[in-house]
Amino acid sequence: MTTTAHTEPADQEHPVTDTARCTAAHPEDPTGCDDGPADAVLILDRQQHGTDGCEHHGARLLASLTGAHAVSGPTAPGAAIRVTKVAVGLAPFCWQEAGPRLEAAQPSLAAVAGCATVLDPAVLYRHAPDLLIEAHELLTLSSRFLTQTLAGEPNDPEELRAYLLRRAVQSDRVEAGGMFGETASRTQAEESFRLLADLDRAHPWLVPAGLTVPGVTAPYEELRAYVRGSYDVSPWT
User: Fold this and answer.
1) Do 68 and 44 meet the contact criterion of CB atoms below 8 Å apart?
2) Which residue of 167, 168, 196, 204 shows the fewest CB atoms closer than 10 Å?
3) Phi, psi at residue 64, to the nearest 5°?
């Protein structure tokens, strides 16, 4: 049984130019790159081998690799979500007129569209600041928010969310690195994850497009996926 997937009519939208194309462009793909950066997205296969590309060719490559996933580049926050959503509707090797059809047994790319569990922390956080420097800045921010609270001043929800996301990411990096013992690190990480989710449920307009806030009783893995998805689309990654 096969599932129909369309061939992207991108030959007219992205005509070939004389300039060099991104490394994600297949040699047989006749289309040119889009107007965005050539490293907008990193496409990783099952073995975590990857190549950078523009969003246009990144989506076409993602659709052609079983088990692959996308990670946003340093200058294109949210690119992974956009590329994955496009790839869901593309046939593998869509530049071929008679390309293979998407087998029903092939893992659904739609499961990746929410930027869930496939985000590898080693790749996702490759541009994150030094842990000690970040810890110092987070402590400074925490003191400022506490001072405002004690003075009866409201915390700005957007600034507070940025802080809670950075704190959750810091905890995720510590837990993923196996620091301070597995149990202690995971407990601290889960607490940070839930604080971010609690804030976002109270302020839904702050939730990035394409992400769903975990519920109050959501498991650890869902909370962690939400933190990583939020980081991937944040403007300061």
Assistant:
1) yes
2) 204
3) -100, -5
Contacts of 9 (CB under 8 A, 6+ apart): none
pLDDT in the model for residue 171: 93
| Measured distance CA(7)–CA(94) in Å, rounded | 5
Residue 62 and residue 46 in contact, taking contact as beta carbons nearer than 8 Å:
no
d(CA 166, CA 71): 18
Take residue 3 and report the two structure tokens written for it.
């599932």
Span 205-228, pLDDT tens digits: 998 877 889 898 888 888 998 999
| Residue 98 burial (10 A CB sphere; 0-12, 13-18, 19+) | exposed
Among 134, 125, 236, 141, residue whose Cα is nearest residue 173: 125
Looking at residue 119, its pLDDT comes to 66
pTM of the model: 0.53
Cα-trace Rg, the chain? 20
Query: Of the candidates 164, 236, 237, which has an alpha carbon nearest to the alpha carbon of residue 199?
Result: 164
Within the chain, residue ranges assigned H as helices are 10-13, 55-64, 79-88, 121-124, 131-150, 157-176, 182-202, 220-232
**Residue 34 near residue 54 (C-beta atoms within 8 A):** yes
Show Cβ contacts of residue 106 under 8 Å, excluding neighbours closer than 6 positions.
Answer: 66
Q: Which residue in 223, 226, 61, 234 sits closest to 163, CA to CA? A: 234
